Sequence to fold (289 residues):
Amino acid sequence: MPELPEVETTKTSLAPLLGHTITWVNTSQKRLREPLPDTLDTLVGLSLGQVRRRAKYLLLDFYQPHSHAPDKTLLIHLGMSGSLGQFTKSTPIRKHDHVMIGFDNDITLHYHDPRRFGMVMWAKDASSYLDKLGIEPLEEGFDGEYLYNRIWQTPKRPITRPIKSVIMEQKIVVGVGNIYAAESLFLSGIHPATPANLLNQEQLNHLAAHIKAILTKAIEVGGSTLKDFSVGDNQTGYFQQTLLAYGRAGNPCTICHLPLETMQISGRASVFCPSCQPLITTPPISLKN
DNA sequence: ATTTTCTCCTGCATGC
DNA sequence: TGCATGCAGGAGAAAA
Fold:
């Protein structure tokens, strides 16, 4: 499940293509989250200038020869099962390969997405997706105070939803999905179902710090395993060995050894330790106003 | 206006 | 062996 670290790792993996020119493009007919543009072949002759990441989106800037301004920007979202793999021209197209882009260094980029929750489209057509994204969690402005303000500075009432769905809300902070939400809440000792408005500033400070730390660590691990797995395999490598909460329901808590529990929060499985992450039901006495 | 549920889609694990 | 069922989830749309 690509979250921010996986997208960042994918971005890094595209380095061998930087500066290289597209020689051909091929697509499946399958519809992704959005229909594939029928103008992808206009990429032929353009070179990949840089790859950026915003939230869980990759933005590939393409340049005309001898130009210094980007000509076209391709937007890619990996959805839930998407991956970008680098192969050669002779590599057979697999099932669920939806976009194939050939480069002049004989690398072929395959966008592979069995569940087709992802998307590939022109960035200029994606403002409805990009404009409302919240803050980047690894940038300076994201901290406990930011979370506190977002929880309390809503038009009317404070946010009373479970804190887990708040940190997964891309309008508030981007990049955190089900895995890293579970991990950061576990590390913070916060029950995922805690109403957001019942958390005090100190708890939110911890939570923000742990979100930053877990994402940073996962990026580092992704970077170190990158060279190990043959490009195009999004299951190998990864961060799974070090997960403390996600996917460990029924297994002993690494802190207190009691079995981890699971519950549905906003429709998603949420693993937590009932002892180390006690559920708060009363408002914080201090630090209000 | 905000919050929950539904929906998209396929692969995998489970159960009869 | 095979088929039905359920679950996984990013995130917008629809419903509550």
